[in-house]
Amino acid sequence: MTNSPSAEDQLRDWVSQLAPEHKRSLLQMLAEDDRLQRSARLDFAVAQLKRICRERGIDWDRMAEAEREHFLDNLVHENELYSTQVGNAPVPSITPCIHCGHEMTPSDLYRIYFGERPPSVERTIAKLVVMDVEVDAQYPLAADGEITIGRLDPHRGIRPDVDLTKFDPASRISRRHARVTVKGRQFFVEDLGSANGTIVNGMTRLKPQEQYPLSNGDVVKIGETTLKFIS
Fold first, then answer.
1. CA torsion sign, 122 to 231 to 136 to 75?
2. Which one of 84, 98, 108, 112 has the lowest number of neighbouring Cβ atoms within 10 Å?
3. Which of 118, 149, 184 marks a domain boundary?
4. Number of domains within the chain
5. Residue 221: its H or E element
């Protein structure tokens, strides 16, 4: 007795018989459908995050991307912590997925938001990469303006563009530690009078408000956290 072909095998056989132009049309249709699904998942996740923020007196729309990442990190940590405790834990209430009906967790929202959102349209020509960490931590540097580096302190209204809080367990980074500015295509880093200093390439300790020109590959130590400048 022979086994009948599976649905997947039948589909593969059917696709193999399509003319090349029909195959391309089918792939385009599937890609568009996938794009629409990703967009819908992202809208759902953002709606849930905005509601959770409102319940905590936080304005999601006024948060920078680094703050949103920090908020989601804390949300995931809270959920993991509460799940190990006995009793009714005040975990954030999340509506089941409107597409599949499955229960959602903060980790799901994190994955959807940072996985489905489109790339930033802001023009960037350089980045700072956090070294000696297991995760891929990169901070794009815009081609104009200035970028502050430090630790988030929402109670004091300090929200650095590059928030290194999670890479600074010993709190060696000042809340307003350093700043990167760009003139033309040249980037400069300066210390903002931090407690533990800013050191470039292991040798040059910057004086407060001293602008140091950055070159591709320069290593900048902020407190005890090391960043690599890539341009």
1. negative
2. 84
3. 118
4. 2
5. strand 219-222
Helices (H), the chain: 7-16, 20-55, 65-83, 106-116
Domain check: are 181 and 197 in the same one? yes
91/143: higher pLDDT: 143
221 within 8 A of 204, measured Cβ to Cβ: no
Q: What's the number of CA atoms in the CB half-sphere (13 Å) around residue 164?
A: 31
Q: Give the span between the Cα atoms of 127 and 141, in whole angstroms.
A: 5
Q: Please tell me the pTM assigned to this model.
A: 0.49
Considering the domain architecture, whether residues 43 and 112 belong to the same structural domain is answered as: yes
Question: Could you say which DSSP state residue 6 is in?
Answer: P
d(CA 13, CA 33): 22
Full residue range of the structural domain in which residue 149 is found: 124-230
Q: How far apart are CA 108 and CA 16, in angstroms?
A: 36
